[in-house]
């Protein structure tokens, strides 16, 4: 028998209940971006109460609490305006969590958890907000009593199908009971078909006859299912979201997920779990997956990987910048082979000048049409491009103004030289504040987000870490791959050991290392390359 101790006792809602989500002591905030899309509605056939599923606002939403009960609560708030039925289970019972999640998906109801980071007061507040007249409890007799006491009711509907099916239980619990199962590893998605059909039919007979609501349309829920995520995922599935499993929580590194999103073109994606970053992070990944833009080879992220940029193209004075760029691309491929790396060509967009010039910036810009021709030829050859810019006496980001049309092309990045920054009179300052470099990072991130571009590389040449003052404070979003290249001549014009040690020390979070190679490479480049920390870019000397 699937249902025991079943007596339907309405959980009456107070005449007037106002729940301010901001007042709930929930650690996880709903990070939203973009515009609102309509909700889908249905009607409770027994009471006439409104049943509403809520489509997340904007293209991306992330629910990332590490506490299972808080995660379940925020999912209920995110996906449901109202529901006459709610499913509840103890947060510390692995089997009950998984069964409750599958139950919610089966009867189209949000799933909540007791204990954990959510107080009884907040649990009752959420039930009141939903207008849940029926509370289905998954768990043992003690769990039923606890929920009854917490909600102020003597009786609740109890659903105890025993556990999941044998296969689902083994996947969810590792063959161990809920209390004994270590909270590690993945769990299977809590789809409704994990429950016996007769059990579900018996439960439906004991709860209000709710008319089938119009469920969510074209909303994906991205999951990397971990213990504690079951209830939140069950709520998303109950509302009609389509699940997509994302290994490690990073869409950009999963070609299968990228292809799924590109094919389905969802109105929005919800990430459940802390591996998805912020809503902006997830929104960028969704946007670039939908746009179809990729780096050479089909990737969206540059790293992990290694790149070699030992070929320069200086467009000024070339009779045919495009043809010379093709030759440089061929040379780059040859140079990259000994390093077991991908080729990358540096195109000089501007150079330092000893005179202020007409614009007073101490920089000579290369003809934009020539730079454009060179970039086009290199990208046609399937290689990445770095636009090398001189700062002069203007902020680093100022040099990007004229180059922005080129930076909207997938696979085109920027290389900057903070130590060439000069004062108003043309004398070298030799350093920039971190805010000046941050402005470049932020601008590239904005371009990637707005244009649906894959990750953009920003190379920062340094002979000393101090050339970017307060470098450790640099904040790097996932749209940008920042590489600090140690560039100070040593024996054979390769980077000196002391320079490498200085630049490599205490790198900002989420950044990578580059190393300046000599013009003439030995037959075995590994013999002169540093190996610790991991090298991401071998740059032109």
Polypeptide structure, described:
The chain is α/β, with parallel strands linked by helices and 541 residues long. The chain has two domains: 21-291, no CATH class; 307-539, TIM Barrel (Alpha-Beta Barrel), CATH 3.20.20. It contains 14 helices and 24 strands. Helix 14 links the parallel strand 22 and strand 23 (511-516). It is elongated, with a radius of gyration of 29 Å. Residues 1-50 and 163-182 have low confidence and may be disordered.
Strand proportion, as a percent range, falls in: 15-25%
With strands numbered from the N-terminus, the spatial order across the biggest sheet is: 13-14-17-18-20-22-23-24
What is the tally of beta strands? 24
Q: Based on Cα principal axes, name the global outline.
A: elongated
Topology record:
Elements: E1 31-33, E2 40-43, E3 50-53, E4 60-63, H1 68-79, E5 80-82, E6 85-90, H2 94-107, E7 111-114, H3 120-130, E8 134-138, H4 141-151, E9 157-159, H5 166-173, H6 197-206, E10 219-223, H7 230-238, E11 242-245, H8 255-264, E12 268-272, H9 279-291, E13 307-313, H10 321-336, E14 342-348, E15 350-352, E16 363-365, H11 368-380, E17 384-388, H12 404-407, E18 412-416, E19 432-433, H13 434-451, E20 456-462, E21 468-469, E22 480-486, H14 497-504, E23 511-516, E24 535-539
Parallel strand pairs: 4-12, 6-7, 6-8, 8-9, 10-11, 10-12, 13-14, 13-24, 14-17, 17-18, 18-20, 19-21, 20-22, 22-23, 23-24
Antiparallel strand pairs: 1-4, 2-3, 3-5, 15-16
Helix pairs in contact: 1-7, 2-7, 8-9, 9-13, 10-11
Brief characterization of the structure:
This protein has 541 residues and is of the alpha/beta class. It has helices spanning 68-79, 94-107, 120-130, 141-151, 166-173, 197-206, 230-238, 255-264, 279-291, 321-336, 368-380, 404-407, 434-451, 497-504; strands at 31-33, 40-43, 50-53, 60-63, 80-82, 85-90, 111-114, 134-138, 157-159, 219-223, 242-245, 268-272, 307-313, 342-348, 350-352, 363-365, 384-388, 412-416, 432-433, 456-462, 468-469, 480-486, 511-516, 535-539. The chain has an eight-stranded parallel barrel with strand order 13-14-17-18-20-22-23-24, surrounded by four helices.
């Amino acid at each position: 028998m699937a249902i025991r101790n079943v007596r339907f006792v309405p959980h009456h809602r107070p005449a007037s209940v106002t729940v301010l989500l901001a007042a709930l002591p929930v650690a996880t905030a709903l990070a939203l971006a973009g515009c609102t899309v309509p909700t889908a509605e249905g009607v409770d056939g027994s009471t006439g109460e409104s049943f509403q599923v809520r489509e997340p606002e904007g293209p991306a939403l992330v629910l990332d609490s590490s506490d299972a009960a808080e995660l379940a609560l925020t999912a209920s708030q995110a996906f449901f305006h109202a529901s006459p039925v709610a499913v509840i289970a103890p947060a510390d019972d692995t089997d009950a969590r998984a069964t409750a999640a599958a139950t919610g998906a089966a009867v189209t109801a949000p799933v909540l958890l007791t204990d954990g980071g959510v107080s009884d007061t907040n649990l009752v507040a959420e039930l009141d907000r939903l207008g849940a007249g029926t509370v289905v409890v998954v768990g043992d007799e003690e769990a039923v009593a606890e929920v009854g006491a917490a909600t102020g009711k003597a009786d609740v509907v109890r659903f105890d199908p025993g556990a999941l099916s044998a296969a689902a239980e083994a996947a969810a619990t590792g063959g161990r009971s809920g209390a004994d199962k270590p909270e590690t590893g993945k769990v299977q998605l809590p789809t409704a078909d994990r429950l016996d059909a007769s059990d579900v039919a018996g439960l439906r007979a004991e709860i209000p006859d709710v008319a089938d609501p119009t469920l969510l349309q074209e909303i994906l829920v991205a999951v990397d299912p971990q213990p504690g995520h079951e209830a939140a995922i069950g709520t998303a599935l109950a509302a009609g979201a389509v699940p997509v499993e994302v290994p490690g929580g990073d869409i950009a590194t999963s070609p299968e997920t990228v292809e799924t999103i590109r094919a389905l073109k969802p109105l929005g994606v919800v990430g459940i779990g802390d591996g998805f970053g912020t809503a902006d992070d997830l929104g960028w990944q969704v946007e670039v997956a939908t746009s179809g833009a990729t780096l050479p080879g089909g990737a969206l992220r540059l790293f992990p990987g290694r790149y070699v940029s030992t070929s320069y193209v200086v467009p000024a004075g070339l009779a045919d910048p495009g043809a010379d760029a093709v030759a440089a691309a061929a040379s780059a491929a040859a140079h990259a082979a000994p390093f077991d790396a991908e080729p990358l060509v540096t195109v000089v967009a501007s150079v330092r000048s000893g005179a202020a010039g007409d614009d007073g910036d101490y920089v000579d810009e290369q003809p934009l049409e020539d730079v454009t021709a060179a970039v086009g030829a290199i990208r046609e050859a399937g290689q990445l491009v770095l636009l090398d810019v001189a700062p002069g006496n203007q902020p680093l980001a100022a040099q990007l103004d004229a180059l922005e049309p080129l930076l909207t092309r997938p696979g085109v990045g920027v290389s900057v030289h903070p130590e060439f920054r000069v004062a108003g009179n043309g004398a070298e300052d030799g350093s920039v504040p971190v805010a000046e470099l941050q402005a470049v990072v932020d601008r590239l991130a904005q371009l990637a987000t707005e244009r649906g571009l894959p990750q953009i590389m920003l190379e920062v040449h340094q002979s000393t870490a101090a050339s970017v003052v307060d470098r450790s404070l640099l904040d790097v979003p996932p749209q940008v791959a920042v590489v600090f290249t140690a560039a100070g001549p040593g024996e054979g014009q390769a980077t000196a050991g002391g320079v490498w040690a200085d630049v490599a020390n205490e790198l900002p979070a989420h950044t990578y290392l580059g190393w300046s190679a000599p013009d003439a490479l030995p037959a075995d480049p590994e013999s002169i390359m540093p190996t610790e920390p991991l090298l991401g870019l071998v740059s032109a000397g």
